[in-house]
Amino acid sequence: MTSREFDRIGVIGLGTMGAGIAEVFARNGYAVTGVEINDEALERGRQHLEHSTGRAVARGKLTEAEQAELLGRITFTTEMKDLADADFVVEAVVESLDIKKSVFRTLDDIVDADAILATNTSSLSVTEISAASGHPGRVVGVHFFNPAPVQNLVEVIRTVVTEPDVLADVQALLAELGKSPVVCGDRAGFIANTLLFGYLNHAVAMYESHYATREDLDAAMRYGCGYPMGPLALLDLIGLDTAYEILDTMYKQGRDRLHAPAPILKQMVTAGLLGRKSGRGFYTYEAPDSSKVV
Ligand code: 3HC
After folding, report:
1. Ligand 1, atom nearest to 143 Cα
2. What angle do CA 155, 161, 166 make, to 5 degrees?
3. Architecture of domain 192-278 in CATH?
4. What are the pLDDT digits (tens) for 3-33?
5. 122 is catalytic
6. What is the pTM (predicted TM-score) of this model?
7. Which domain of life is it from (predicted)?
8. In CATH, what number does 8-184 get?
């Protein structure tokens, strides 16, 4: 049980993660306000949600009427001021400290004094982002995993000033959504990415040195260790640009050589090979955002 009542949820940024997070809340009956920077990005977010819920319809997990009801719970807007009645806002914009800080600064004048604000950053400092808000005690990190509607883990990041009742309410809210929250302090990478990205980076280095083929590297971890995807296929799902940024931030903060991005990663990003989202990464896909390898 949460001590606050959560009726309306705000999600800022409807990229892969933001759209997935909006879907999670709408699936659970919450009214959601999804905010994007312009009409084009808003339309992409709407399409992402239609595609993802359409997949559930195709698999017989949702009826068309339920899909329409779910999408009907989401209000799409380009105006941050439409978040005025939100009790819980999740920011999922690009991984830029300056942009995130400006979002939190703006939010302060819009939401009620007891609304909880969360950032879905995967490696930036939650403390620094929260300091831009006038109420840092009500700010936490909520780090969802990709695909957000499927992965149960959500890391909840507390800063040194996060209020205990805020932390408890966020954990309870996430548990109500069927998620499994874990709590950790504010360090780049949090728990899962710190452990995961050393492994992913190592796989890239093995691929780069022609030690094994991409197929064999992936098959080894799938069939030998029971991972649902091999490391290179997973990097394509995460997005190579996102992976590079996460590794670079962790490396700069912790100076652990495990996290020094393998050179080919940067080269692939520069060449526009971003993974599934661009249609090509370590593998080539039928179309951008498709999971079908050609
Ligand atoms: N959006 C919504 N739902 C999706 C989806 C997506 N992008 N991809 C798959 N699904 C759903 C399917 O609809 C299906 O749902 P159902 O069981 O209700 O019918 C279910 O997931 C299984 O999908 P598939 O049968 O198509 O495919 P798989 O069984 O191969 O599963 C996978 C796909 C869920 C992506 C699985 O391979 C997996 O779990 N991979 C590992 C993902 C992972 O490790 N994520 C964490 C990345 S790290 C991260 O996110 C942190 C960040 O900071 C970078």
Report:
1. 53
2. 55
3. Orthogonal Bundle (1.10)
4. 889 999 999 999 999 999 999 999 999 999 9
5. yes
6. 0.94
7. Bacteria
8. 3.40.50.720
